[in-house]
């Protein structure tokens, strides 16, 4: 079992979600997060003063899946999150081992609980 975390641009959430659903990956958790990567922060005007924010708004998607779905899941995320050639800031995907998963309602464990 693996735990996949993707950090993407907020405006790409719908296209990533649609790509995941098309790949039959329907169980996802989405959170709003802030972070700083390689992209240069855009200058904003706040109350008439130019401000350069330290952190950019991003979306975090968490997906627990069985090993055979890792490539399918990652490919769907990449398909939906890509902006275009040369653009920085499309995001990252992190894959970690998932030691255990337990479905609270039934007590099922492991891959069946996912």
Describe it.
- The protein has a single domain (about 1-110), classed as 2-Layer Sandwich (Alpha-Beta Plaits), CATH 3.30.70.120.
- About 20% of the residues lie in helices and about 30% in strands.
- The strands form two sheets. The protein has a four-stranded antiparallel sheet, with helices on one face. Strands 3-4 form a two-stranded antiparallel sheet.
- It is elongated.
- The chain is of the alpha+beta class and about 110 residues long.
- The chain is built from two helices and six strands; from the N terminus they run βαββββαβ.
- It has helices spanning about 15-20, 70-80, and strands at about 1-10, 30-35, 45, 50, 55-65, 90-95.
Q: Which helices and strands, and how do they pair?
A:
Blueprint: E1 2-8, H1 13-22, E2 29-35, E3 44-46, E4 49-51, E5 56-65, H2 70-81, E6 91-97
Antiparallel strand pairs: 1-5, 1-6, 2-5, 3-4
Helix pairs in contact: 1-2
Protein name: P-II family nitrogen regulator
GO molecular function, one term: enzyme regulator activity
Organism: Caldithrix abyssi
Order of helices and strands: EHEEEEHE
Return the average pLDDT rounded to an integer: 91
Q: Please state the CA-atom Rg, rounded to the nearest Å.
A: 17 Å
Tell me what the CATH architecture is: 2-Layer Sandwich
Strand order of the largest sheet: 2-5-1-6
The proportion of residues forming helix, as a percent range, comes to 10-25%
Number of strands: 6
Shape: elongated
CATH topology: Alpha-Beta Plaits
Q: What count of structural domains? A: 1
Runs in which pLDDT lies below 50 for 5 or more consecutive residues are: none
Quaternary status of these chains?
single chain
Secondary-structure class: alpha+beta
Q: How widely separated are the two ends?
A: 9 Å
- What is the number of helical segments per DSSP (H or I, 4+ residues)? 2
Largest sheet: 4 strands, antiparallel
Instruction: Report strand %.
Output: 25-35%
CATH class: Alpha Beta
InterPro entries: N-reg_PII, N-reg_PII-like_a/b, N-reg_PII/ATP_PRibTrfase_C
GO molecular function, one term: ATP binding
Protein name: P-II family nitrogen regulator
GO biological process, one term: regulation of nitrogen utilization
């Amino acid at each position: 079992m693996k735990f996949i975390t993707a950090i993407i641009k907020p405006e790409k959430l719908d296209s990533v979600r649609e790509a995941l659903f098309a790949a039959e990956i329907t169980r996802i958790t989405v959170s709003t997060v802030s972070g700083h990567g390689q992209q240069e922060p855009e200058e904003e005007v706040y109350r008439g003063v130019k401000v350069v924010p330290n952190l950019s708004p991003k979306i975090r998607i968490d997906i627990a899946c069985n090993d055979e779905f890792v490539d399918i899941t990652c490919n769907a995320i990449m398909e939906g999150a890509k902006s275009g050639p040369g653009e920085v800031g499309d995001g990252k995907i992190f894959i970690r081992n998932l030691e255990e998963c337990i479905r609270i309602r039934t007590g099922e464990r492991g891959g069946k609980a996912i």
